[in-house]
Amino acid sequence: MSDKNSSQKNWTSWHHLLHKEILGNKTLIPDGANLLIAVSGGQDSMALLNLINDMRKQHNWFVNVWHGDHQWHEKSAKYALELKSYCNKKNISFFFDQANKNNISSEEKARDWRYKKLSERANQLLIENQKEIDIYLLTGHTNTDNAETFLLNLARGSNYAGLSYINKKRLLKHHIFLIRPLLIFSREDTKKFCQLQNIPIWEDPTNCDLTIKRNIVRKEIIPILETMYPGCSKRINSFAEKMSNYKNEQNDLSKLASLYCEDAIGVKRELLNSLCIEARCTILNTFLKKDCTKQLSSKNLTHLASSILEKDRGKIDLPDGFEIVWNKDYINLEKN
């Protein structure tokens, strides 16, 4: 594809990087895709909106915007109207939902509400299309968000999965994908892009509310860390990406180990018990996930692995009406 946009006055190094990312991964946002961009009005989502809109003719994208008003501050309705006017001037379809602020009193509830409404709007677009065309929900998450999430999850005591990198693409439901195109950029990048392009920003005042944990990490903890160790956010983000790769590697290796420990009768108990406790827990978890939709906690997996090691015979009830049964030679999953 010839780079027609390269001659445009507003084509920047950020356009080039995103365009290169999209061309390098044809399935990320395919040509001709129907896009629904979640736009809060902040610098990240406004950078995303303008980058994608500048490229839409090149890729034959159908661009739509969704904005959610949490009603967390007195100017939220005014911001929504101004954002709608901005999109109208660019001939971009604008969708809007307003929440009952009493029902979204926490970050988690607000996030759940946003994704619920986004999915509803995506379903609406699917119905209007009257054909099997995927909908791509785009959010403005940057690698700085990823570093913040890593620190929050680390402080909470998360496992490897919780410390891993935010996926660029994820299937939310049939024909609806969640895409995070800006993970190649930092929040400093989106700030500079908006300044250079004179893009208006509607900053939510609640982003300065230090009773919100993420804001404390964003406004206080990361700046202190950056002062002590300049560039630490990028290194944290890079480490999170390595953790994600490690998680994928561990999943693949655990599947192979699980197959090695099994035969037509069940899991070979003696072979399993010859491994360290961590490996036994991983293999048991892989074995159970084949039929049990609800996973055991790390504590319960450790108890199960220890029981199988210590007792020649036994059984333990599991979720979904299953029980794990073992004798001297084999371990099996049975319907209770």
- Strand and helix order: HEHEHEHEHEEHHHEHHHEEE
| Mean pLDDT across every amino acid position | 88
- Coarse morphology: elongated
The N- to C-terminal Cα distance equals 59 Å
> Looking across the biggest beta sheet, what order are the strands in?
3-2-1-4-6-5
* Radius of gyration based on Cα positions: 24 Å
Helical residue percent band: 40-55%
Largest sheet report: 6 strands, mixed
The number of helical runs is 11
Tell me the number of strands.
Answer: 10
Q: Low-confidence spans: pLDDT under 50, at least 5 residues?
A: 1-7
| β-strand amount | 5-15%
Oligomer: single chain
Q: What structural class should be given to the helix and strand makeup?
A: alpha/beta
In short:
The protein has 336 residues and is of the alpha/beta class. Helices cover 50% and strands 15% of the residues.
Report on the structure:
With 336 residues, the chain is an alpha/beta fold. It is 50% helix and 15% strand. It contains 11 helices and 10 strands. The chain has helices spanning 13-24, 43-59, 76-89, 107-129, 143-156, 187-196, 213-228, 232-261, 269-273, 277-289, 298-310; strands at 34-38, 62-69, 93-98, 135-138, 169-173, 176-179, 267-268, 314-318, 322-326, 330-335. The chain has a 6-stranded mixed beta sheet with strand order 3-2-1-4-6-5, with helices on both faces. A 4-stranded antiparallel beta sheet has the order 7-10-9-8. Helix 5 (143-156) packs across helix 7 (213-228). The chain is elongated, with a radius of gyration of 24 Å. The model is unreliable at 1-7 (pLDDT under 50).
